[in-house]
Amino acid sequence: MIIVLKPECTDDQIQHVLDRIHELGFTPHISRGVSRTIIGVIGDESKLQAQPLKAIEGVEQVVPIMKAFKLASREFHHEDSIIDIKGIKIGGGHLAMIAGPCAIEGEERLMRIAGLVREAGANILRGGAFKPRTSPYSFQGMGEEGLQILRRVGDHYGMPIVTEVMDPRQVDLVARYTDMFQIGARNMQNFDLLKEVGKTRIPVLLKRGMSATVKDLLMSAEYVLAQGNLKVILCERGVRSFEDSTRNMMDISAVPNCKLQSHLPIIVDPSHATGRPDLIPAMALAGVAAGADGVHIEVHDCPEEALSDGPQALLPKAYAELMVQIRGLAELMHKTIDACQEVAV
Ligand code: PEP
Ligand code: MN
């Protein structure tokens, strides 16, 4: 249920509404917009009567939400949410350029790749320390040592970092190092994991599951938001289809589709969506043109030596060429790509 307050509603009246919701055994979430304050009410809607709430002074409208997601909805928060990762903004006209290797493989290599993508214009560094591999015999990631390397390299270049967390038991450990959690496609509906990252206040990059609908994705975001962590960034990374010449099928319509329904930023990941370096640039640009709030790309300086996802890695030079085009498109669309912190490198 969403309670829309009158523009002239006083602080005392707002407090009274919040107290009343608590008394009724529900959890209110307040959203103060430029001209309006809105309260989202979490709980079993069938047990909450709209009429008595409408009678409270200062309340303009009580909207029962039959949609399964509430806090993620546009109705709850009209303006685009802007999420700030250590000075790099995502959403509301700010584009995140996330780049780096699929997996952290060593400090020297990550340092080299990070330096190159930063120079090209990337503003967030990625790298997996815990890898969700299809085969248990494939490289599983460097674990905590990888997190330490990613932290050091990110700090060296003044780049915020994002890395995947695969298990609720890893959340505390990963939280000690990262600026943003990544929830991978395979874990989009790992609800215990979503609740656990929801209890932190660290931003969450939530990837769409390979067989998940847009509604499923928004429902998963709701799990995180319902725990009080409002910093969720959605990611379209392709869904399974009958097409076998690409790794997945990038659903570009998911970008405007999510944006119409939700205030959360959404970025695209053409690397996992296509699995093909020759298709990544076109799909990255298509994503930005469709309104995406950022692009996530895997870059490796020697793909044949990569321990994970080598065949889909973009070479640093190709990434730099693509960034020139993305910057041009961003300018045309009046979007900003925030620069990393200045550091002596
Ligand atoms: C990754 O980002 O390396 C990854 C495993 O992504 P996804 O969960 O989208 O497959
Ligand atoms: Mn990967």
List the main descriptive attributes of the protein structure presented here.
14 strands, Alpha-Beta Plaits, 8-stranded parallel sheet, binds manganese (II) ion, TIM Barrel, 11 helices, 345 residues, alpha/beta, 4-stranded antiparallel sheet, elongated, binds phosphoenolpyruvate
How would you sum up this structure in a few lines?
The chain has 345 residues and is of the alpha/beta class. Helices cover 32% and strands 17% of the residues.
Report on this model:
This protein is of the alpha/beta class and 345 residues long. The chain has 2 domains: 62 residues, Phospho-2-dehydro-3-deoxyheptonate aldolase, domain 1 (Alpha-Beta Plaits, 2-Layer Sandwich); 250 residues, Alpha-Beta Barrel (TIM Barrel). It is built from 11 helices and 14 strands. The chain has an 8-stranded parallel beta sheet. A 4-stranded antiparallel beta sheet has the order 2-3-1-4. It has a two-stranded antiparallel sheet with strand order 5-6. Strand 10, helix 6 and strand 11 form a beta-alpha-beta unit. Helix 3 runs parallel beside helix 4, helix 3 runs parallel beside helix 11 and helix 6 packs across helix 7. It starts with a strand and ends in a 13-residue tail after the last helix. The relative contact order is 0.13. Bound molecules: phosphoenolpyruvate and manganese (II) ion. Manganese (II) ion (MN) binds next to loops.
